[in-house]
């Protein structure tokens, strides 16, 4: 027997846990490597970088 | 427009790094796929770095990068007619729930359910329901009015509850053509495929 409230609660909890489970994962190595590279790469504008801020 | 104080590069990079786990969580919920989401995050990092002079010190790096990620995602969808899929690797996992709850939601079901929603509704429920953003913050990220955001969240909740309660998924969440099938029909179909 599932009441509406119960479903709402399960949904809310499920969404939060789904999000939190990703937060707890270690970052992939290639992402960390990319972050390191950002030091040296100066202002090479990547494809579409400006327009994605303003859409 | 340019009276705003930019962050020194080192500080910008530090704040950017802190936003990464949230970008991955947002991206994965939006795209429904780990690899697509991580590619999106990498694109977002590059774009944010290239545009770092436009970031206003003291504002939210997370919200700013969420805007870049969602715009990247939606323009990529428009270009490539991207169809999301749920994360196969996570299909076995069950979301943790308090011990009192007998019937926790399966992550795979929730992810498939999310992919059934319109893009706008999926984004809204992720930001507010999963990410914990206020309606106001979420509306700013999605570039819409607060009332619109409230209505998207409400409709998304209702639709998701119905889908999950009844176990009804269309093949849209698999990236196939649009036909409705119950979970049981999907299972029978899969068994038939294996048997043939």
Describe this structure in words.
With 55 residues, chain A is mainly alpha-helical. Chain A is built from two helices and no strands. The longest helix of chain A has 20 residues, at 4-23. Chain A is rod-shaped. The model of chain A is unreliable at 43-50 (pLDDT under 50). By secondary structure, chain B is mainly alpha-helical. Chain B has two domains: 9-80, RNA polymerase sigma factor, region 2, helix turn helix motif (Rna Polymerase Sigma Factor, Chain: A, Orthogonal Bundle), CATH 1.10.1740; 103-195, Winged helix-like DNA-binding domain superfamily/Winged helix DNA-binding domain (Arc Repressor Mutant, subunit A), CATH 1.10.10. In chain B, 63% of the residues lie in helices and 3% in strands. Chain B has helices at 9-31, 34-50, 61-80, 107-116, 119-130, 135-142, 146-166, 183-195; strands at residues 168-170, 180-182. Chain B is globular and about 50 Å long. The model of chain B is unreliable at 86-102 and 175-189 (pLDDT under 50). At the A-B interface, helix 1 and helix 2 of A face helix 1, helix 2, helix 3, helix 4 and helix 5 of B.
Gap between N and C termini of chain A: 45 Å
If you compute it from the alpha carbons, what radius of gyration of chain A comes out, rounded to the nearest whole angstrom?
A: 20 Å
Beta-strand level of the residues of chain A, as a percent range?
A: under 5%
Poorly predicted spans of chain B: 86-102, 175-189
Shape of chain B: globular
Q: Find the biggest chain interface.
A: A-B, 39 and 53 residues
CATH superfamily of the largest domain in chain B: Winged helix-like DNA-binding domain superfamily/Winged helix DNA-binding domain
């Amino acid at each position: 027997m599932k009441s509406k409230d119960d479903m709402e609660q399960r949904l809310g909890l499920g969404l939060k846990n789904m999000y939190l489970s990703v937060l707890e994962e270690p970052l992939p190595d290639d992402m960390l490597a990319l972050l390191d590279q950002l030091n040296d790469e100066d202002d090479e504008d990547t494809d579409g970088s400006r327009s994605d801020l303003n859409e | 427009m340019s009276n705003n104080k930019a962050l020194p590069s080192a500080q910008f990079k530090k704040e950017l790094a802190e936003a990464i786990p949230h970008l991955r969580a947002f991206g994965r919920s939006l795209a429904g796929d780990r690899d697509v989401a991580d590619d999106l995050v990498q694109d977002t990092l590059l774009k944010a770095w290239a545009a770092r002079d436009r970031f206003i010190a003291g504002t939210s790096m997370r919200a700013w990068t969420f805007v870049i990620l969602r715009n990247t995602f939606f323009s990529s969808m428009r270009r490539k007619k991207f169809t999301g899929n749920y994360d196969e690797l996570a299909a076995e996992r069950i979301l943790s729930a308090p011990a009192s709850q007998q019937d926790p939601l399966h992550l795979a079901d929730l992810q498939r359910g999310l992919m059934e929603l319109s893009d706008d509704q999926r984004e809204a429920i992720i930001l507010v329901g999963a990410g914990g953003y206020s309606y106001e913050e979420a509306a700013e990220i999605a570039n819409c009015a607060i009332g619109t955001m409230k209505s998207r969240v409400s409709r998304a909740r209702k639709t998701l509850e119905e889908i999950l309660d009844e176990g009804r998924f269309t093949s849209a969440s698999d990236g196939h053509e649009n036909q409705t099938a119950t979970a049981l029909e999907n299972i029978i179909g899969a068994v038939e495929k294996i048997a043939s």
